[in-house]
Amino acid sequence: EIVMTQSPATLSVSPGERATLSCRASQSVNNNLVWYQQEPGQPPRLLVYGASTRAPGVPDRFSGSGSGTEFTLTISSVQSEDFAVYFCQQYDNWPPTYTFGQGTNLKIK
Amino acid sequence: QVQLQQWGAGLLKPGETLSLTCAVYNGSFSGYYWSWVRLSPGKGLEWIGEIGHRGTTNYNPSLGTQIAISGDSSKNQFSLKLIYVTAADTGVYYCARVRPLSVGRPFDYWGQGTPVTVSS
Hints:
The complex is a heterodimer. Chain A is mostly beta strands.
């Protein structure tokens, strides 16, 4: 089973600052990497898939990068509505399984 | 705008069966996979399983034979049954649409979530 590890567990930034969130896979997932944002009481929201493709409607301050085992989600200038929990997810096609990281809680400083 | 609406009992006793249903509105049932995902305090987000529009199912191996997912394309609905629940099955359960042709097979639309508590 592929294990996804996110760091840091909590990241405190001030509005307007850059935020860099990391996700590491225990073995290569190529670019089968997805990022979600989840606010309290809401379902997750798709941000990025294929490691770097933004989902429709996602602001361009969100960018994803990486391949293989190391991935990054960058928020270039954090806005008030961005304070939430962020999850990464990988897909393995044999057997078909999806695995999530444990999340990074982006908090206001 | 695609909408997923889910429903089912949220309070169960250990050993009972969890049953949830998700209806898809304003979108096609075919051409996609349809998944169940849960969020629990101990495990974070966990994929439970999925069904394709032709009935093909894939399940999380860690949940083994505890799961059954079925679908009804005539009603644009799919359902989850989780048998012999324990306290470890407590959490918020979500239904979600999978984009099988996108890299990473992302979940692009989600239901509102159903809180489930297992307690004697």
